[in-house]
Cell shape-determining protein MreB (Lacticaseibacillus saniviri JCM 17471 = DSM 24301), 329 residues
Amino acid sequence: MAKDIGIDLGTANVLINVKGKGIVLNEPSVVAIDTKTGKVLAVGTEAYRMVGRTPGNIRSIRPLKDGVIADFDITEAMLEYFINKLDVKGVLSKPNILICAPTNITSIEQKAIIQAAEKSGGRKVYLEFEPKVAAVGAGLDIFQPQGNMVIDIGGGTADVAVLSMGEIVTSRSLRLAGDRMDAAIVAYVKNKHKLLIGEHTAEKIKIEIGAVYDADPEETIEVRGRDIATGLPREVEVTAAEVEEALHETMLAIVGAAKEVLEQTPPELSADIIDRGIMLTGGGALLKGISQLFASELKVPVLLADAPLDAVALGTGTLLDNIAHHKQY
Ligand SMILES: Nc1ncnc2c1ncn2[C@@H]1O[C@H](COP(=O)(O)OP(=O)(O)OP(=O)(O)O)[C@@H](O)[C@H]1O
């Protein structure tokens, strides 16, 4: 018998949860392609190591952008590779798949996600919205008649949603999140230090010292790149306060989206959110000071999920138990 699986098809990472086993795969959403032959050379972790380091005939591609599929064939090849790595197919049967998507995607973008899951080996494919699944994965009981609020900050999208009785009551999805923060750090270091750095280096800076509120003035990181003027390699010291400045605009947009969602939330549910707090999920929830930032801007208690990067995949695991109740395509 095939085993049902839940997939968090993220812009940055793909996680797969197999029913009864838990999360069995967690790899970057990257594929390396030979541009002459079109052949897939590496997928996931191996391909990620090649980003920015490939010779002319090899390209490492991230097939998802801003939470949606940017390259259908490569997304399908990547998913198929991941699913085949797992022992989930039966002798004659294929697994049912529960897959997640941001809230504001078009019906065409939804169809593309579903088709990619079908073509990569799914039998029945069910689609759920990411903030709902993230809330379940973070341990919230969203099925009661009470308000729960989630802010999920991933690589390509930031989703904000208020849920009650298992459904999204009001939501906003921004096509800017971790990737935009990395790009902002690249631009900041270029302007301030006249140094060109790659996206991996920017992500490393964000993960190691990234702060969005009251950055520690002592915290710094040595950064290497190419001097704009001389073209030669150079090293500079970047401070956490500089990173906070670089991330300010992206955070302002996410805080703005959260305020809009709160403004549109029915008053009874707003009262529940004051009691229960806002749950932060996704890799962005690991930024230093993020709960303080949201708490000070939104005047509501803020909680961090125990495993923010795993929340969506964990949520698919819980929802797989009732897979037949989800929307099927
Ligand atoms: N410690 C950290 N501090 C800040 N950001 C982090 C940290 N760890 C990971 N991230 C960022 O989190 C993002 C990935 O998060 P996540 O896996 O939740 O996103 P995703 O599901 O792939 O994307 P999306 O939901 O937008 O499609 C990346 O941008 C990564 O740089």
